[in-house]
Design a protein that fits this description.
It contains nine helices and six strands, in the order αβαβαβααβαββααα. It is an alpha/beta fold. The strands form two sheets. The chain has a three-stranded parallel beta sheet. The chain is globular, with a radius of gyration of 19 Å. The N and C termini lie far apart (54 Å).
């Protein structure tokens, strides 16, 4: 629950930076993200082999674009099972693609089990997301981030009136931030806080990759001398 909102925010955040971007909506029966971004998001049904191959081939083939995937409950287990079966994460890293999972937390035991199982079985970066519209409280110890420096992303709860505004089909977070005079409003503060969290996460991931690369280069030089 709440994954489409996170995907929507990510798409607008990346698009505001003008970077190459593509989204995939894995909710074929209710493709809300595709309907909101028809020229940017592709609907994908991974219930059959053709859909599976098409999605993962595109994720691997294009390493110049940022990819955002809206993964609902209907395709959740299957998506990660396929990812593990085909060795996607290893191939992605070989192509310098760093998969990052923003996982929406809640209070149910099943969600905590799913999170723990995925973190144990998949060598990806997992970042818990606390959407307060989904759950006001949760047990933080049940959802530890993969890396301490890439911690929780918080999505504050909005008032019902403002929620009605942002749910309009024509509403754009990025456009509102740049064009709406007379701020700051509740929306300015809400979007600004979330986009700042995304920027910090990106910086942390970049610093981690840089540190890993420098560490690898240092090891290579050391081994070469001996």
């Amino acid at each position: 629950m709440g994954t489409t909102l996170i995907a929507r925010l990510l798409l607008e955040f990346f698009r505001a930076d003008g970077r190459p971007l593509v989204g995939y909506d894995l909710n074929p029966r209710e493709p809300a993200l595709t309907q909101r971004f028809p020229n940017l998001v592709w609907p994908v049904d991974i219930a059959d082999t053709r859909g599976q191959m098409g999605l993962f081939d595109r994720l691997i083939a294009d390493n110049a674009s940022t990819k955002v995937i809206d993964l609902g409950y209907g395709s959740f287990d299957q998506f990660f099972a396929i990812m593990s079966e085909i060795g996607f994460l290893q191939e992605a890293r070989r192509r310098l693609i760093e998969p990052t999972v923003l996982f929406v937390v809640d209070t149910t035991a099943a969600t905590a089990r799913n999170y723990a199982g995925l973190r144990s079985n998949l060598q990806a970066t997992f970042v818990p997301v606390h959407n307060e519209s989904v759950a006001l409280f949760f047990a933080k110890e049940d959802f530890p981030p993969t890396r301490a420096d890439c911690g929780l992303i918080r999505i504050p709860r909005l008032s019902p009136i403002v929620r009605g505004v942002i749910d309009r089909p024509s509403f754009s977070f990025a456009d509102y931030m740049s064009e709406q005079p007379g701020g700051p409003t509740e929306v300015h503060q809400w979007v600004g806080q979330i986009f700042a969290s995304f920027r910090e996460l990106e910086l942390r991931l970049l610093m981690g990759r840089l540190s890993s690369s420098l560490g690898g280069a240092s090891t290579t030089r050391h081994d070469g001398r001996h």
